[in-house]
Amino acid sequence: MRKRIFAANWKMNHGPTAAAGFIHQFRSRWVKGDAEVAFFPSALSFAAVRAAAGDPSPFKLGVQNVYAADRGAFTGENSAPMAKDAGADYVLVGHSERRHVFGETDADCAAKCAIVERSGLTPLLCVGETLQQRQKGETSSIVTRQLREGLAKLDQIEATTSVIAYEPVWAIGTGQNATPQDAAETHAVLRRALRDLIGDRAAEVSILYGGSVTPANAAQILAASDVDGVLVGGASLEVESWLSICSA
Ligand code: 13P
Q: 169 C-alpha to center of ligand 1: Å?
């Protein structure tokens, strides 16, 4: 009943030329299955990715960030209505790099999720604890708070159409992935938190795992209970390794 999603977060990699080249190569070799494949290129590469994906695109497309206003004097920012107009389906909200490098708060995430939903797009809300928080036994309380506060401005229908990603901060770009057991435990915590918010509809929300997913560990992680897909950084940057993950 839930969608399985393979999401590639390219972060600040692949300019328009490289991004288009990747999509052409990937498309020519990828075998479409039931799962959804989504790309989150840089905003500058978005149009090139969309053009290379074709019309209709066999992939979902997303942007990595938006500002929480429709338009205005916000130099350097992009809005959710602009992302919609450009052809996006998804917007990443609250990625750990946004939270920890750029100081985004749960309140920022709530405002962004709201404007994303109201622009007709799907927020992919990222949550995850730092190593220090994990060592103090705070994982469940941190991710529950991030989920509740991030979705706080959505109604039940909107919350049901959102997608969640559990990305432990200590596992991002470190080569140290969570074990399938770690992922299953925290995904169960998130599913319970969703149930508190939206009742039985919690079963419809896809929860992805992210953090050092590779071709070598993807199948095991995807087999963990309540793991509905993966959000991948480094290993989504090469066609070969992304193809391998998408067929896991
Ligand atoms: P890595 O796959 O490079 O660890 O990054 C994960 C991530 O942050 C995806 O959003």
A: 9
The pLDDT tens digits of the residues spanning 214-235 come to: 999 999 999 999 999 999 999 9
Please report, for the chain, the start and end positions of each structural domain, with discontinuous segments joined by +. 5-246
Dist CA 231 CA 164 (whole Å): 10
Superfamily, domain 5-246: Aldolase class I (3.20.20.70)
Does the pTM exceed 0.90?
Answer: yes
Active site residues: 95, 167
Which residues are 165's β-sheet partners?
Answer: 126, 208
Secondary structure class of 163 (helix, strand, coil): strand
Task: Spell out which residues line ligand 1, taking CB within 6 angstroms.
Answer: 9, 95, 167, 172-173, 210-213, 231-235
Neighbours of 215 (CB within 10 A): 17
Question: How would residue 1 be classed by pLDDT, with cut points 50, 70 and 90?
Answer: confident
CA atoms within 13 A on the CB side of 139: 19
Give the closest residue (by CA) to ligand 1 atom 5.
Answer: 233
Q: Best substitution site from 11, 14, 126, 241 to test ligand 1's pocket, by max atoms within 8 Å of Cβ? A: 11
